[in-house]
Amino acid sequence: MAVSFELEVSLSACGGVPLDEALRELVDAGVRRVELAIGPRWTDCSLDALRRARREGVSFAGHHAFPCGGRARPFNLCDRIDVGAHERRMDLLAELGASRYSVHAGAYEPGHEAAAFERFVEGFGTLTELASARGVSVGIETMYPRRALGPRYLADDGPSVQALAQALPAVPWVPDLAHVGLWPKQTRAASLASLRALPLLEVHASDNDSVHDSHTAITERTWWLGAEGSLDPRAPRVLETRLFRPDASSVRRELLRVSALRVQLRLRCAC
Q1: pLDDT higher than threshold 80 for residue 49
Q2: Is the distance from CB of 207 to CB of 232 less than 8 angstroms?
Q3: 42 near 245, Cβ under 8 Å?
Q4: Are 225 and 265 in contact (CB under 8 A)?
Q5: Does domain 8-270 have CATH number 3.20.20.150?
Q6: In the 3-class helix/strand/coil scheme, how is the chain assigned residue by residue?
Q7: pLDDT in tens, 9-37
Q8: Beta-carbon-side half-sphere exposure of residue 216 (alpha carbons within 13 Å)
Q9: Nearest to residue 255, comparing CAs of 100, 18, 34, 97?
């Protein structure tokens, strides 16, 4: 039996599963809005499965280096971009009728932020041109501070997001609530408040252990429950919780559980 859910579901929840198999389980669970993302494996059946789902009424969005015609290849918008690979990715989104695509802000070596910032703005501009020519809007996902030595992300805390937003004022944003929970120097309430004035493309929803970007299950203790409603309600909410058993019944139970939690917390906050 098909069930209608408010939440969209990211295929990143189905890591290691063939894309056509993961998509079939989501559709059988009643999911009709799917985000293409790194996680599932591309197979010879994947393109036909995507086209079939599209004919059956599934709507799509895309996230970063989702698999497209082969193995997903990570990319960094702070480096030189592969225009051909982005053209193929945008062509697929256009064929599937997708209108949204989100990307990571990019990573850079400490001490080279200014140069990385310039390269990102240039690369993002090229990507936006490719996308807009195909009717796709592109948003930047908020990132998180890396604890280990080595590269760090742009947009990895509130001030970094605001600096990038000032440089690209018309660009929509994609708050990843699990990432925002890892931001230093601000309370979580202040972090959410800093995002309310930004144009939003969508909102990514999951949780973590307050230390790692682990995309764990949403529970009653998840910090943003009851507060994410203060973000633009028109921005779709995309569930990115990792599903270790992505069969239809497990997906349906998880969506019903998370939807019920969101309703309960909203009602509690309204009292």
Answers
A1: yes
A2: no
A3: no
A4: yes
A5: yes
A6: CCCCCCCEEEHHHHCCCEHHHHHHHHHHCCCCEEEECCCCECCCCHHHHHHHHHHCCCEEEEECCCCCCCCCCCCCCCCCCCHHHHHHHHHHHHHCCCCEEEEECCEECCCCHHHHHHHHHHHHHHHHHHHHCCCCEEEEECCCCCCCCCCEECCCCHHHHHHHHHHCCCCCEECEHHHHCCCCCCCHHHHHHHHCCCCECCEEECECCCCCCCCECCCCCCCCCCCHHHCCCCCCEEECCCCCCCCHHHHHHHHHHHHHHHHHHHHHHHC
A7: 999 988 888 999 999 999 999 999 999 99
A8: 14
A9: 34
CB distance 203 to 235 below 8 Å: yes
pLDDT for 170-224, tens place per residue?
999 999 999 999 998 788 889 999 999 999 999 999 999 888 888 899 999 999 9
Neighbours of 71 (CB within 10 A): 9
Token code pair at residue 218: 């949403």
Domain extents for the chain? 8-270
What six digits make up the tokens of 17?
Answer: 């599963």
pTM: 0.93
The answer to whether 88 touches 68, Cβ cutoff 8 Å, is yes
pLDDT value, residue 6: 74
Distance CA 90, CA 86 (A): 6
- Nearest residue to 27 via CA among 6, 49, 12: 49
Cβ neighbours of residue 265 closer than 8 Å, sequence gap 6 or more: 220, 225, 226
How does strand 59-63 pair with strand 33-36? parallel
Question: CB count, 10 Å around CB of 259?
Answer: 16
